[in-house]
Amino acid sequence: MHALGRVVETILLSVIWIGLPVSPIFVSLLAWDRAYVRNYRQTISRLARTLQAMAKAEVIARRFYSEKRAAEQGTSWKIEGECSHCGECCLFKACVFLDSDEHGHSRCRIYGNWFFRQLTCADYPISKDDIDLYACPSFRAEPIPQVSKVRLGRHAIPIVARNAAPDSTVERSASTRP
Ligand code: SF4
Ligand code: SF4
After folding, report:
1. Among 3, 54, 62, 93, which residue is least crowded by beta carbons within 10 Å?
2. Cα–Cα distance between 59 and 135 in angstroms, integer?
């Protein structure tokens, strides 16, 4: 599945690279901001860095396996923490939509719109892998104590099927009672 993801990613990123010269128009429409077209050369340069970062983070390929990995890791790790808006998970601060507020906190220029909701960054972080990928400084993956070890320790609790055949030894001992 990972191989398929890599193939799809290579094709899609190649198509976007080819369409790079007209991309500022789409970016401008998505962010509803004409500045992306006005500052055409700057937008192209930012888009190029965005695409390089997408390849580095395997943003498209990861969609083919990240949910499965998250489900697997979800039994062993729980995610804790609160975002400090450093912007690192926005493609290593290279996303063309990344902006910052007056306090230097990261701000997404398409936050909440329909396109944003299609992106994996909208749900970040969903797994330990996610946190490791961008070295998020504020969320952490804490190991979940394994319930069987904590609650049962070395003691074994026998489990008997309700419709199991009566144990003849038990019946025999009961019948020898005075
Ligand atoms: S890397 Fe972590 S702290 Fe930084 S913006 Fe993303 S979620 Fe927030
Ligand atoms: S949250 Fe916004 S700025 Fe960050 S990666 Fe996603 S689209 Fe880009």
Report:
1. 3
2. 15
Rounded to the nearest angstrom, the gap between the alpha carbon of residue 26 and the centroid of all alpha carbons in its chain is 25
pLDDT in tens, 79-126: 999 999 999 999 999 999 999 999 999 999 999 999 999 999 999 999
How many angstroms separate the CA atoms of 58 and 53, rounded? 8
Q: Indicate if the pLDDT at residue 177 is higher than 50.
A: no
Q: Is residue 84 part of a domain?
A: yes
Structure tokens at 136: 């998020």
Asked if residue 165 belongs to a domain, the reply is no
Ligand closest to Cα of 126 equals 1
Which two three-digit tokens encode residue 67?
């949910």
Q: How many domains does the chain have?
A: 1
Ligand 2 is surrounded, with C-beta below 6 A, by 90-91, 95, 97-98, 108, 110, 116, 119, 121
pLDDT digits (tens, 9 = 90+) for 75-92: 888 999 999 999 999 999
* Residue 95 within a domain: yes
Query: What is the Cα–Cα distance from 99 to 56, expressed in whole angstroms?
Result: 21
Return the ligand number nearest the Cα of 107.
2
The β-bridge partners of 175 are none
pTM of the model: 0.80
Is 171 inside any structural domain?
no
Query: 3-class SS at 111?
Result: coil
Is residue 139 pLDDT above 80, yes or no? Answer: yes
